[in-house]
């Protein structure tokens, strides 16, 4: 079908009122009282602002007159030198400069060695695959069989502190190896 050359369908005639007039919107009456009130308020505001601003102009135009002092009645003022700076009466400034503070830092108690387990697998091939991914990050891990050889755990460590284990765990997380847990284990 050719839509470009198609003719328009014939238009229907609108139905008219019984009197034959078209539908017209009802005319609204303008509230003249509101219009007059708005004009009066605007004029009052303009005259008020003009009165305020003209009041400042009148004050600025009047020069201030300062009465002149008689020259012979007052004695001449002589400029006295400034008094010397008083001595500081605080002693703590010198005491703090020469004070040495002694702090007792207790020795950090080392807990049990930390081990980090990064995976536990049923097949040794999966455990070897994770161990190879860890080795690519420059870390050494071991595979320990558990439950009579049915599970293979991939373990890093032992670490003396948890902070050392956290450093390695963040290195593995940057390499997208997640799920490593730090435990207080002894092998």
TrEMBL record:
Pfam families: SPOR
Keywords: Cell cycle, Cell division, Membrane, Transmembrane, Transmembrane helix
Identification of the protein by name: Cell division protein FtsN
Transmembrane parts of this sequence: 30-52
Keyword Ion transport assigned: no
Compositionally biased tracts (Basic residues): 1-15
Gene Ontology terms, MF aspect: peptidoglycan binding
Organismal lineage: Bacteria, Pseudomonadati, Pseudomonadota, Gammaproteobacteria, Alteromonadales
Organism listed in the record: Pseudidiomarina atlantica
Residue ranges constituting the SPOR domain according to the UniProt record: 108-185
């Amino acid at each position: 079908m050719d839509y470009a050359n198609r003719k328009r369908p014939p238009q229907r005639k609108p139905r008219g009122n019984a009197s034959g007039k078209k539908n017209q919107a009802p005319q609204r009456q303008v509230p003249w009282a509101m219009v007059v009130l708005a004009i009066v308020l605007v004029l009052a505001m303009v005259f008020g602002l003009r009165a305020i601003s003209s009041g400042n102009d009148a004050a600025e135009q009047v020069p201030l007159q300062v009465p002149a002092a008689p020259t012979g009645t007052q004695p001449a003022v002589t400029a006295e030198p400034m008094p010397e700076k008083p001595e500081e009466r605080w002693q703590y400034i010198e005491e703090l400069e020469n004070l040495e503070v002694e702090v007792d830092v207790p020795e950090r108690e080392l807990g049990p060695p930390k081990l980090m387990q990064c995976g536990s697998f049923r097949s040794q091939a999966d455990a070897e695959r994770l161990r190879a991914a860890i080795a690519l990050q420059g870390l050494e891990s071991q595979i320990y069989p558990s439950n009579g050889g049915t599970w293979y755990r991939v373990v890093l460590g032992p670490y003396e502190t948890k902070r050392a284990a956290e450093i390695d765990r963040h290195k593995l997380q940057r390499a997208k190896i997640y799920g490593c847990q730090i435990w207080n284990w002894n092998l």
